[in-house]
């Protein structure tokens, strides 16, 4: 607001305080979360800006806040027989159709295609659309309920999507992605592997060291016994070169 004084002082507010999940800094307009634990999806916040003049002027706008839930266990995959670039261009319409037929809010988690399948097939390309549905309380709808509703509304969904893509469309339920491990779990697994490898290496070192010391001790003992028996009239005594002293004695007697 280019005005000065109270006429240039703008305060921000959430209209009707329509949600308990967010709040707004009245001086800066910064929106922050209050409590979104266990919730996800898109929240539509109506924000009002008002100056403080005698005849206050106001303006409103809608702010869309999306709480990501890509690690949710309620992700459902919708497989469309359309190229991914076409689906991405029309993803807003796909979302609209799904919300209209499912009667829930729909959050698009990801859109992707399986390149290997695309190269292996000569018929039609496929695109995978990962979605999560939310009820009016912004709570996730269980995946089994979403799949059931998708099956019930499959013909209606395909008919609406045909208008969007201007071609025949099939919408099937794909396999849900495996739940991704949390960073904490991944770190714990990596640390466990490192510790296990370190422990194994330590055991190998200890075993090899014990064997080396045992072998060295045995060699030293044999050497000491050989040295202690050197010069004794023992028919089985051996010299340092490994020859029997009895043979040397016999040869000396013959001479």
Automatic annotation (TrEMBL):
Record's Gene Ontology CC terms? catenin complex
Q: Which UniProt keywords apply?
A: Calcium, Membrane, Repeat, Transmembrane, Transmembrane helix
Superkingdom of origin: Eukaryota
Give the principal location in a single coarse category.
membrane
Q: Keyword Signal: yes or no?
A: no
**Single Gene Ontology BP annotation:** homophilic cell adhesion via plasma membrane adhesion molecules
Q: Which GO terms describe its molecular function?
A: beta-catenin binding; cadherin binding; calcium ion binding
Query: What's a Pfam family in this record?
Result: Cadherin
**Which residues does the UniProt record annotate as the domain Cadherin?**
1-77
Compartments annotated for it: namely: Membrane
Transmembrane regions listed in the UniProt entry = 185-208
Q: Which SUPFAM superfamilies match?
A: Cadherin-like
Which PANTHER family does this chain map to? CADHERIN 23, CADHERIN-23
Q: What is this protein called?
A: FAT4 protein
């Amino acid at each position: 607001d280019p005005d000065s004084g109270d006429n240039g002082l703008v305060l921000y507010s959430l209209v009707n305080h329509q949600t308990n999940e967010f709040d707004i800094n009245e001086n800066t307009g910064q929106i922050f979360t209050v409590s979104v634990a266990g919730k996800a999806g898109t929240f539509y916040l109506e924000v009002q800006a008002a100056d403080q003049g005698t005849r206050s002027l106001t303006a409103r706008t809608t702010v869309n806040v999306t709480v990501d839930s890509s690690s949710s266990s309620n992700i459902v995959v919708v497989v469309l027989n359309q190229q991914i670039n076409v689906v991405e261009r029309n993803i807003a319409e796909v979302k609209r159709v799904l919300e209209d037929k499912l009667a829930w809010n729909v959050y698009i988690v990801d859109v992707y295609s399986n390149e290997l399948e695309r190269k292996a097939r000569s018929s039609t390309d496929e695109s995978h659309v990962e979605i999560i549905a939310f009820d009016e309380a912004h709570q996730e709808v269980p995946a089994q309920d979403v799949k059931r509703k998708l099956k019930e509304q499959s013909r209606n969904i395909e008919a609406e999507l045909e208008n969007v893509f201007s071609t025949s469309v099939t919408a099937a339920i794909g396999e849900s992605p495996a739940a991704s491990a949390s960073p904490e779990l991944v770190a714990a697994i990596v640390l466990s592997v490192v510790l296990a490898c370190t422990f194994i290496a330590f055991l190998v070192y200890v075993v090899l060291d014990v064997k080396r010391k045992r072998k060295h001790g045995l060699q030293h003992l044999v050497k000491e016994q050989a040295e202690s028996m050197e010069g004794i009239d023992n028919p089985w005594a051996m010299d340092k070169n490994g020859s029997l002293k009895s043979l040397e004695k016999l040869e000396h007697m013959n001479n």
